[in-house]
Amino acid sequence: MAEFAGEKEPKALQRFLNLTSWSAALMRDLVRDYAMECFADPRGVLIADPTGFEKKGVKSAGVQRQYSGTLGRIDNCQIGTFLAYVNRRGDRVLIDRELYLPKDSWAVDFERRREAGIPDEVVFQTRPQQVQAMIDRAVAAGVPFSWFVACYNPRGESLPELVAVIGLRWPVEECFEAAKQQAGLDNYQVRKYDAWHRHITMAMLALAFLAAMARTPQKGALRTWAVTAGRERDGSRP
User: Fold this and answer.
1) CA separation, residue 12 to residues 2, 15, 70, 169, 189 (Å)
2) Which of 10, 122, 138, 168 is the least buried, fewest Cβ under 10 Å from its Cβ?
3) How far is CA 207 from CA 22, 134, 146, 197, in A?
4) Phi-psi region of 57 (alpha: psi -120 to 50; beta: other; left: phi over 0)
């Protein structure tokens, strides 16, 4: 990101992620709202999946030797739990994220938590609990969807539609691949809990913007991030 911003080194971006005062949770909500403005579909699908981030050392929040399906092995890594959104056009974006904190090595090690900047109010959650919290946020925000992949069939749909929905499981892997290759999802040098969420959320924004720009423009269908975010700050809604 620093390179594309014209910086010779990442120090300024690291200060932005680590030291400046801004809410990663608010930015997450803005990213989700922007994605829904572009891709909302009443028959949309929510897909939950983790991805791993290989790391060195023991200081980064949530890092430990653990199994990562992304890496295909047990290794020193962080695990992020994500919620993706897919519509019938095949557009797919990441709309929520949480850093997984292993119970024994992080959730109850208070000195280690303080060093990594993990707030006291953040308690241990299993990955299914993290997914449930993200679904609750999506529902509260009015995200339209008919399915949650890997959960259940809430509408009693036919077998052909079930097969079609199960086939949508793959797009979340494509989301991760695109986010890592095009938006720098896994290209970070931060250790703090908040900084991880800030970096990941900015990468999610970049991915959503690229997905929006890749669509065939339709009159009135897309607005720039600056306009959308500006209206959010002014308190007005689209």
Assistant:
1) 8, 5, 30, 37, 12
2) 122
3) 20, 19, 23, 15
4) left
Q: Which of 196, 212, 213 is nearest to 28 (CA)?
A: 196
At which residue do the structure tokens 């797919």 appear?
92
The SS3 assignment for 25 reads helix
Task: Round to the nearest angstrom and report the end-to-end CA distance of the chain.
Answer: 29
User: In the chain, helix, strand, coil percent, each to 5?
Assistant: 45, 15, 40
Please report the pLDDT score of residue 24 as a whole number. 94
* pLDDT tens figures, 59-116: 999 999 999 988 889 999 999 999 999 998 889 999 999 999 999 899 889 999 999 9
154 or 55: which leads in pLDDT: 55
- Compute CA 119 distance to the chain's CA centroid, rounded to the nearest angstrom: 19
Distances (CA, A) of 197 to 77, 81, 82, 188: 16, 11, 11, 11
* Residues 63, 59: Cα–Cα separation, whole Å: 7
Read off the pLDDT of each residue in 130-157 and give the average, rounded to a whole number. Answer: 80
Decide the pairing of beta strands 45-54 and 147-149: parallel
Cα atoms in the 13 Å half-sphere on the side-chain side of 14: 10
Residues in the chain: 238
Residue entry with tokens 């109010």: 121
Phi and psi for 73 in degrees, rounded to 5? Answer: -165, 170
